[in-house]
Amino acid sequence: MAMTLSCKTMVAEAESRIKAYTVQEAQQKLADPKVQLVDLRDVRELEREGVVPGAFHAPRGMIEFWVDPESPYFKPVFGEDREFIFFCAAGWRSALTTDTVQRMGLAPVAHMSGGFSAWKAAGAPVAEKPAKAAKA
């Protein structure tokens, strides 16, 4: 089956429309209370690879529903007056996500080039995924 639009093309098109930060630029923004890093990776990736301290986890499959205030799945963090910097493992999912949420009206938004892989390679801080609290 011939694809009419490849994922590589989709990512390239998204990257032409969005703002991107390097790992170093994202690191400099980490302590800023007006910035929220958003980790789009699957929970298994978080458990296996670790997390960026302070990043909010929003699985890629739910992001459109979590950012839309009209959705029953809306997460209040996305209603806060912050810049949202999305990242995934390599930067592909975050490029597509940033383009999507930007088109939905979430602003300001950006993505971190190279994703968590580049974060780790740069020696940026990584923590273990916090254990889920037991339900009472």
UniProtKB/TrEMBL annotation:
Residues 31-128 form the Rhodanese domain. Coiled coil: none annotated. Pfam families: Rhodanese (PF00581). Gene3D superfamilies: Rhodanese-like domain. SUPFAM superfamilies: Rhodanese/Cell cycle control phosphatase. This is Rhodanese-related sulfurtransferase.
